[in-house]
UniProtKB/TrEMBL annotation:
Catalyzes the formation of N(7)-methylguanine at position 46 (m7G46) in tRNA. Its EC number is 2.1.1.33. Substrate binds at K176, D208, T246, K247, F248, E249. The keyword Methyltransferase applies. It comes from Pandoraea nosoerga. The gene is trmB. CDD domains: AdoMet_MTases. Residues 1-41 are annotated as: Disordered. S-adenosyl-L-methionine binds at E97, E122, D149, D172. It comes from the Bacteria. GO terms for cellular component: tRNA methyltransferase complex. Belongs to the class I-like SAM-binding methyltransferase superfamily. TrmB family. Keywords: Methyltransferase, S-adenosyl-L-methionine, Transferase, tRNA processing. GO terms for molecular function: tRNA (guanine(46)-N7)-methyltransferase activity. This is tRNA (guanine-N(7)-)-methyltransferase.
């Protein structure tokens, strides 16, 4: 999942179900539990929050990036984020979104919740440009973006107990069984996210892949510091009003596909 501190390539795209369905995995990534680096040394393989895919920014996205990037795109730094300086205010609830795709959902939620500050993490440059375009058109003042690998952002920029919420919507389900270990929602990363939540903070995930929903439910339920916010027999939550139904999701619903929301809270 990590890009080892290097800026993402121009064709980097998040492991996100709304994105293209095919693409090459990053260099050095193999199906085993280790990879061999250029130094010839075997290293434990870490899950990546993105995969390499083709994709180019439109002219409108490039213009938005040039005009609004300096204000709304924050540089990655291996040190705690200064939220008041980044957002120009203090005391607002802080929400992290990992892999926002083309940003439609992020912009929708940020408009509905102007009193919350949203930090979106995305490596795919067209997606960053698309969200910046929406920020300018709406306009929005409560969204900032970090164009970097999510694991390193969470590890180094977000201190323990600093978040009020985390959104992960439609991450890549990695359909093939041998690729399941590449899924974002694994116990170590869920534990890391939980450590960054304040007491009472929430983690909201959504997927349209039932088997992944079942794994998410197992992994989230296995994290001792989290508790499910619903008491239904299946453990899944109704879609919260703030999460919009995306075009991709609508298409799936018309075809009879299911969508599963999971909302857990920090004890």
């Amino acid at each position: 999942m990590t890009n080892h501190g290097h800026p993402p390539a121009d064709d980097a795209q998040p492991a996100h179900d709304d994105a293209a369905a095919t693409g090459a995995t990053p260099s050095n990534e193999q199906d085993g539990d280790v990879y061999v680096g250029p130094d010839g040394v075997a290293h434990p393989r870490r899950i990546r929050s993105f995969v390499r895919r083709a994709g180019r920014s439109s002219e409108a996205q490039k213009r938005a990036f040039d005009a609004l990037g300096p204000k709304f795109v924050l540089p990655y730094a291996a040190q705690p984020l200064d939220w008041p300086a980044a957002f120009g205010r203090d005391g607002a609830p802080r929400i992290l979104e990992i892999g926002f795709g083309m940003g439609d959902g992020t912009a929708h939620i940020a408009k509905l919740r102007p009193n919350d500050d949203f930090l979106g993490v995305e490596v795919h440059e067209p997606g960053v440009g698309a969200l910046l375009k929406l920020i300018g058109e709406t306009p929005l003042s409560n969204v900032r973006i970090v164009q970097h690998d999510a694991v390193e952002v969470v590890e180094h920029m977000l201190p323990a107990g600093s978040l009020d919420g985390v959104h992960i919507f439609f991450p890549d389900p990695w359909h093939k069984k041998r690729h399941h270990k590449r899924r974002l929602l694994q116990p170590p990363f869920v534990a890391l996210l939980a450590s960054r939540l304040k007491s009472g903070g929430y983690l909201h995930c959504a997927t349209d892949w039932q088997e992944y929903a079942e794994q998410m439910l197992e992994v989230l339920g296995g994290e001792a510091s989290l508790e499910n916010t619903v008491a239904t027999a299946d453990g899944y939550a109704p879609r919260p009003d703030y999460r919009p139904v995306t075009k991709f999701e609508n298409r799936g619903l018309r075809l009879g596909h299911g969508v599963w929301d999971l909302v857990f809270r920090k004890r």
